[in-house]
Amino acid sequence: MTLSGGDLMLAKPAAPLPLDFEVPPASRSHLSYFTSRLAMASLRAVRPLPVATRLASVSRLHRLYSSAASIPHYDNILVSAPKPGVGLITLNRPRALNALSTAVFRELNDALRQLDDDRSTGAIVLTGSEKAFAAGADIKEMKDLSFSDVFNTNFINIWSSTIPGLRTPLIAAVNGHALGGGCELALMADIIYCSSTATFGQPEIKLGIIPGGGGSQRLTRAIGKSKAMELILTGKNFSGIEAEQWGVAARVFESSEACVQGAIDTAATIAGMSSVAVKAAKEVVNKSQDLPLRDGLEYERKVFHSLFGSKDQKIGMTAFAEKKKAEWSNE
Question: Cα separation of 211 and 215, whole Å?
Fold first, then answer.
């Protein structure tokens, strides 16, 4: 099923299977007959939803799909696979507007590690709800902590302990509020897509603190010192349109549904490439953020040379020369 764009939900079956249904004797050894009937009954029970309720329906479908795929159950996130090679993680704390906490990051990091280790997953999408990607940190968790509490436990280190080390590309699909920790979480992604109504910001100054999850560093690298300084010192927000104009987001969409679907489509495109080349490309681009230009160019050249030892370099170049589609070995 497509989990966004053409959103669906399960309704009461129009024609349920009778309780005395039996598999014909000639087919009793073939369970596929029975499961096919169940699948057809489920399909008859599908109906489209109005736009106002689509995101809630997507969340329910994620839960059903995850259960069917034997994906671990989490309390604060939903995990699904909307397209081959694509992992989709949805933050799911609607009452708290997806506020981030230690419990959320424990689950998020666990899911990300599992997807990163899964060789069939070529790209990951991280999103929230239409109202909030993540409205910020869970202030209730931290308001009574002392300096010794946060210093001795290295508080919120868990927030950035996993994502920077992922080798699988991560796309953040941002709708609604992405404030404080939510903005920092989005900035950790390799690519950001957002809707025009998305709101980004680092308002920590209004709480008597500063960004602690990388906001002062990653936002400054994305938009420059002067603009980042203004936003962090005043706590002002910026829109999804501005995020795209300033280079924070790669693309901006008119609706939340289009944003998530766009991220899934791009993830599927990435997943269709050689995983060896994709991981190498992500690595060299990220090195550009850490190394001086001269060192970065030397690093890029070495990785470029190393790919000539991969099977996929031969497959890709041979397919191009023969005007065929490359069938990647991921080796």
Answer: 5
